[in-house]
Specification:
Layout lengths: L31 E5 L4 H13 L4 E5 L5 H11 L4 E5 L4 H10 L4 E2 L5 H10 L3 E2 L1 E2 L2 H9 L4 E4 L7 H9 L6 E4 L8 H5 L7 E3 L5 H5 L3 H12 L3
Parallel strand pairs: 1-2, 1-9, 2-3, 4-5, 6-7, 7-8
Catalytic activity: 2-dehydro-3-deoxy-6-phospho-D-gluconate = D-glyceraldehyde 3-phosphate + pyruvate
Pathway: Carbohydrate acid metabolism; 2-dehydro-3-deoxy-D-gluconate degradation; D-glyceraldehyde 3-phosphate and pyruvate from 2-dehydro-3-deoxy-D-gluconate: step 2/2
GO molecular function, one term: 2-dehydro-3-deoxy-phosphogluconate aldolase activity
Amino acid sequence: MRGNGRMSVMNVPLPSSGVPDASFSVLGLAPVVPVVVVEDVADAVPLARALVAGGLPAIEVTLRTPAARDAIRAIAAEVPGAVVGAGTVLTPEQVTDAVTAGARFLVSPGCTDALLAAMRASGAPFLPGVSTASEVMALMERGVREMKFFPARAAGGTAYLKSLAGPLPQARFCPTGGIGPDTAPEYLALPNVGCVGGSWMLPEDAVAARDWERVERLAREAAALR
């Protein structure tokens, strides 16, 4: 364990059976979780290797493209050290598909009763999305303590999260949405923030050019933010 009590990625159990292991916290893997949109499956493995080499092992592949599920499968099978998850999970069917493909954690922009039940049943750690105090309280009533705060900047940013820390100190967040290298440290300094999500280490031109060295360098800078 690190001195701050968060689990090191080196201690995260790696499943040998394909069954998710809920014994780790997504919030403790790294200060930044890259939010990845994969258009071409061929890019998935080298992109993930660059992120892991840069110190960002938790990789959220969003289910926004036809290539997403195959990208998760490829990363899970071919990139040692990567903890690949599925983002933009909207339905119970997507939960099943993502976990079957090898996703080890799940992230949603919001939450419904059906989606929460499916994420719980999957056995994988999950971060349901919230943007209001009432949504946080509703999830806490159901035993959920770790959540995605989305869309972070539009929903009030650091000022809003700071306000939540007083009445709801048990809740911890991964803010995502409108966060970049200049603002990430402000979020990471808050006591109720475990990590942030973002895609600034994956500029479109670098991915298009398959400039994985640049991605690795940006990932390394992001990993050093805390």
